[in-house]
Amino acid sequence: MSPRTTVRRGAHRAEYSRDAILSILRAGTMAHVGVNTDDGPLVLPMAYGLTDDTLYIHGALANSLLKAGADREICVTVTVLDGLVMAKCAFNYTMNYRCVVVRGTARVVDDPTEHETALRIVTDHIVPTWDAVRPVTASELRATRVVALSLDECSAKVRTGPPTNEESDAQEQYWCGDIPMTTKFGDPVTAPDAAGAVPPQVAALAGRDAHDRG
Fold first, then answer.
1. Are 154 and 5 in contact (CB under 8 A)?
2. Of 70, 100, 141, 206, whose CB neighbour count within 10 A is largest?
C-alpha cells in the first residue's frame, strides 16, 4: 500500500492485506496494463502470472506496450466481476466485484533463469500445462520480453451483497436485487492436428468456475 494506492472512494471496501490481494490475483485471468507511451496513455489486456511478491507479464519483443513500459511506471489492474446489482433507481446500480490495482516500475527480466521461470509461471497461472506441451526453444525465449512488477505498491477493492437504496425509496414498489455472474469452462475442443489424449489438467477444467484456482 502507498498513498497512490490508498482507496478513497468507498474506502470501507478496501483490502490491503497481502493474502486478500493474492487471492484476487490468483482468481483472475486477464490484467489490463496501463502505460504512458510517447503517443499518449495506452491500456491493453494481457495474460499474467504471479509469485507471492511479483507479478509477471510478457509479450513479443516488438510489443509496443512493453517496450514503452520497460523501466518506467506502469499500472496493472485485475478485476473479477461477480454480479450485477440493481437498486430501485438506476442511479444506485452497481456491480459486485473484486479488483486489484498494482503500481510501480516495470523491471525487464534479463536473467535467463528468471525469464524462463516467469514464462512458466504465466503459463501455469492460466492452465498448468508448461510440462505437458513441447518445450519452448531458445529462439522462442529470446523473442519474448518478460516484465516484472513488484507487489509492494498495490491495493484491492471488493464489493459484495445487495443494493443500497435511498431511504426515500423504501416504499417505492420496484424490484431490486443482485444477479450473480459466473464464468465456467466448457469441454475441451480438440484441434484437427492434435495428437494424444487431452491432458488431465485440461480435462479437469470442464464445468469448473473459471475463477476457482483451487
1. yes
2. 100
- The total domain count for the chain is 2
pLDDT by residue (tens digit) across 37-60?
888 999 999 999 999 999 999 999
d(Cα 22, Cα 19) in Å, to the nearest integer?
5
For residue 214, the model assigns a pLDDT of 57
CA nearest neighbour of 27 among 118, 158, 134, 133? 158
Instruction: Give yes or no for a contact between 144 and 47, defined as CB atoms under 8 angstroms apart.
Output: no
- Nearest 5°: phi and psi at 57? -130, 160
Residue 172 sits in the same domain as residue 199 = no
Tell me, yes or no, whether 139 and 84 share the same domain: yes
State pTM to two decimals. Answer: 0.92
Q: What is the CA 122 to chain-centroid distance, rounded?
A: 11
The one-letter amino acid code at 145 reads: R
Domain range for 51: 3-181
Q: Are strands 40-50 and 54-60 parallel, antiparallel or unpaired?
A: antiparallel
